[in-house]
Specification:
Helices cover 82% and strands 0% of the residues. By secondary structure, it is an all-alpha fold. The radius of gyration is 21 Å and the shape is globular. It is built from 15 helices and no strands.
């Protein structure tokens, strides 16, 4: 495996790992809400982004207004807008439907990436995609069974919002890679910092909406000593690891991998999240969950293998052409 492919795969897997930590955040915040956590987290992310730009002030001076507008848009699509739709989905549809739909993001992103770039033949992707879809369904089976076929207007609204979240993140994945392709050599830290600063500022405009939807418990619980352990520390940890670290890793992956492969690798987020959830609950996985995890892993391995084979074939073809030209 060449260095570029290896670095991209490692970065995408690291991004999936960091983002999976979002699924354990409800166990860390006590009576504070996810709205409280996300708002403080985005605030910290913006502050860290400012520090990163100060440390890279030589690169910061080269930024254009277009760069700032693009990253602000990406910050809204991939972070603030995505967060708003997830919160609305959770409020109206409960805790089961949103994760089930979000599990489809990697597959949809991978399909959209290949439609956009045609980076590999569809025939080659049938097995990895098929395994990913079946694996995601099996991992979410126990949760989906809890729905008992009951639907209401509230649940439909929540489901629509969950679908909106999937659409936003797919849009973000493709738009982010396109923006980076037009800016070769962009520093991943600077790009990440710009998105985080944009998202942090945009979060301020969300506060009235969140308050109206009653997404915040902090005004009642307080912002003092009790908030340190259950709000500030978890928010800071997620800002550093999941927001900054995850976004940086995803930028590195987007610069080095076709979106089809990067999207497929994101299925590991559900694997990590499931494992974390089981550890916290001190439970063993159900047979279907275990089978789903295995299928996801096999699908990822096959996807990496397919792109490695393609990369190797292209390298050999280039080498032959070079020999023929030299001869």
């Amino acid at each position: 495996m060449n260095t570029r492919l290896k670095t991209g795969v490692t970065a995408a897997l690291f991004a999936a790992f960091t983002w999976s930590l979002n699924f354990i955040s409800p166990f860390l915040i006590g009576n504070y809400s996810l709205g409280d956590l996300a708002t403080v987290r985005f605030f910290f992310s913006g502050l860290i982004g400012v520090v990163i730009l100060v440390l890279h002030r030589d690169l910061y001076r080269r930024l254009t207004l277009s760069d700032w507008l693009v990253t602000a848009g990406l910050g809204f699509i991939g972070y603030v807008g995505y967060f708003i739709t997830i919160m609305i989905a959770a409020v109206y549809a409960g805790p089961i439907i949103p994760p089930a739909f979000l599990g489809l993001v990697p597959v949809i992103l991978a399909i959209a990436g290949n439609v956009y770039s045609s980076s590999i033949s569809w025939a080659t992707l049938r097995i990895p995609f098929g395994l990913a879809v079946i694996g995601l369904i099996l991992v979410n089976t126990s949760s989906l069974f809890q729905l008992n076929g009951e639907w209401s207007l509230s649940r439909l609204i929540g489901t629509g919002s969950a679908i909106g979240a999937v659409a936003l993140w797919t849009w973000f994945g493709i738009a982010n890679q396109r923006a980076l392709s037009k800016r070769p050599g962009t520093n991943a830290w600077v790009w990440t910092a710009m998105m985080m600063i944009g998202g942090s500022i945009e979060t301020l405009f969300f506060l009235p909406i969140g308050y109206k939807l009653k997404l915040f418990n902090a005004p009642t619980l307080g912002f003092g000593a009790i908030a340190i352990a259950h709000l500030y520390l978890p928010a800071f940890a997620l800002a550093v690891i999941a927001s900054i670290g995850g976004a940086w890793a995803w930028t590195v992956a987007s610069q080095r991998l076709p979106m089809t492969l990067a999207g497929q690798l994101l299925t590991m987020e559900m694997v990590f999240a499931t494992c974390f959830g089981l550890l916290i609950r001190r439970q063993w996985p159900h047979p279907l969950e275990l089978l789903g995890i295995v299928l996801l892993l096999v699908g990822i391995i096959k996807a990496i293998g397919a792109f490695y084979d393609q990369s190797k074939s292209l390298s050999q073809d280039t080498e032959r052409e070079s020999r023929c030209t030299a001869g």
